[in-house]
Structure formats: structure tokens, C-alpha cells
């Protein structure tokens, strides 16, 4: 039995509330169990200097955790004067993931920045940030379409992410902190709505895992992402 009582292939309860930030072009609050992430998307009519006159748009991301997102207080990285390696790695992952679902030619020479701020953490924060970040990005893109600033929606596919791991000797879906801290292996898997793999981060924490266990985790991720995409669709349609 998993600590949460869930089945091996069962996600934590998922909810996505849109329109939670007044000034952002797109926003949502995603809850995956006790992991809560605020995602906002901001549009700028410029691209990074190295992309000027390329005809392409850019999607990037920033990620952070509030001091009491965890069970003990963490100092704000701004107070420390630098971002941790973990923060930099996660926000680059979010940016790469979200760009996989964007036609940057249609977006044109503008930048959309997706900010993902973890309000409460209980495992899987990067996966929740990607899944919620896509909703904020989609809502911002729809605003561009309604304003007539792009000829069509530059978002060409859903992008969502979910964690998997080996806990208690068997592959399981969507690890919370209690499982993640004890997992024999853990993975973060990013996929498109059409089933394409965008990124797979997977490592053994102790003994190596087998090819069969890898295949089971990929199947679990496919099932979980399909459910997350359905939640994304419902959130966007209800916005």
C-alpha cells in the first residue's frame, strides 16, 4: 500500500483554477495533491537580443519556491544573491518543455515568460509547474489571437508532466514527498498531448532498475499525462 493509499497508477487529486492573477495575460493555480503552484504568463513585444530579426518568438520560464513552501523555512534566493543550481535546472526544464508545444514562427518576434511560484510543496513541483505553466501560456496566447496580433494560435499541442518512481519495490505514478524521499528510483516525464516524449529525467537512487520497470514507468506516465491533459482542456474551456 502506498503511504497515501492510492493505487499504483493513480494521480493525486488535480485541480486547475484560472484567472487568479489580475494583471497577467494568462494565469492559473494548479493543485496536485498538496503541491500548489501559481503560474503566470507575461507577453513582451521583444525577444532576447540574440534572437532579434530571426522571425521567431521565444518562451522562457522562471521558477521559485516561497520560504514556507516546505516544512521548514528556506531563505529567499534573492536574499542569498543567487539562484541555486536546482532552481536554474528546473526553470530551464520548464522553458524547454513549454517550447515543445509552440509554433515560434506564428508567435512572431515576442517573448512569453511563464513564472512558476511554488506556494506549497509535497513532491512533483516541476511537473506541476509545467502542467500549470502550459495553461497560463495557452490563455496568454488566446489573448494574442483575440487582439488580432497573431494570425492563429501559436500553441500547437498540450504539454504536461508527471513523476513516476519505484516505491516499495514496484513502479508507481505521481510521487508525493513521502514516496519520493524513499523511492528506489524516480523520474520526471514530460509529454505532449499527442503522446510525444519531450524530456525524460530518470535515475536510480540505489539499486539499478530494469528495462521492464522503465517500460512500466513510461506506461504509467502516458496514462497520467492523458489525465492531466484532460484537466488542462477543462481549465482552458472554463476560463
Structural overview:
The chain is α+β, with helices and mostly antiparallel strands and 239 residues long. The protein has a single domain (14-238), classed as Ribosomal Protein S5, domain 2 (2-Layer Sandwich), CATH 3.30.230.70. The chain contains six helices and nine strands; from the N terminus they run E-E-E-E-H-H-H-E-H-E-E-H-E-E-H. Strands 1-2-3-5-4 form a five-stranded mixed β-sheet. A four-stranded antiparallel β-sheet has the order 7-6-8-9, sandwiched between helices. A hairpin with a 2-residue loop joins strand 6 and strand 7 (170-173). The longest helix has 28 residues, at 211-238. The model has no long low-confidence stretch (mean pLDDT 96). Homohexameric ring arranged as a trimer of dimers. Its EC number is 2.7.7.56. Belongs to the RNase PH family. It is an enzyme of class 2 (transferase).
Fold blueprint:
Layout: E1 14-18, E2 26-32, E3 35-44, E4 58-65, H1 77-80, H2 85-99, H3 104-107, E5 111-120, H4 125-146, E6 159-167, E7 170-173, H5 177-180, E8 185-192, E9 197-204, H6 211-238
Parallel strand pairs: 4-5
Antiparallel strand pairs: 1-2, 2-3, 3-5, 6-7, 6-8, 8-9
Helix pairs in contact: 2-4, 4-6
